[in-house]
Amino acid sequence: EDDSDVGIAVKTRARTKRPPLYKVLLLNDDYTPMEFVVQILEQFFGLTHAQAFEIMLTVHKKGVAVVGVFSHEIAETKVTQVMDFARRHQHPLQCTMEKE
Ligand code: TYC
Asked: Where is the Adaptor protein ClpS core domain (predicted)?
């Protein structure tokens, strides 16, 4: 019998999973000054004054807004920077991250 080289070719796709992205969220509170929030958004997120003001107002009105979307490491750094800066100035501003 002939048992040479008979079979089914099965192709598998190389699965290159993209790393998950994380939303950085800013939360509203009653005490942090609006100008302070705008300053943070300019300083740590590279937003223009107009963009920063718009996001600040959205948070103020809606309670929360997405400030940006980043890799886990970058998002974590942003959250730490914002929380440290707010704490140093004794403002209760809250910043968190969540998987997109
Ligand atoms: N609500 C605050 C005020 O009236 C302003 C504010 C905006 C605070 C956004 C936090 O993430 C924030 N002074």
From this structure: 17-96
Could you give phi then psi for residue 12, rounded to 5 degrees? -110, 140
Supply 47's token pair: 């937003």
Q: Which atom of ligand 1 is nearest to the CA of 93?
A: 10
Residue that has been written with the tokens 């107002």 in this structure: 57
What SS3 state is found at 25? Answer: strand
Read off the pLDDT of residues 11-53 as tens digits, 9 standing for 90 and up: 888 889 999 999 999 999 999 999 999 999 999 999 999 999 9
ipTM over the 0.85 cut-off = yes
Q: Is 29 in the pocket of ligand 1 (CB under 6 A)?
A: yes
**Distance between Cα 64 and ligand 1 center (Å):** 10
Task: Compute how many other C-beta atoms are within 10 angstroms of the C-beta atom of residue 52.
Answer: 21
**Atom 11 (ligand 1): residue with closest C-alpha?**
28
For the whole model, what pTM was predicted? 0.86
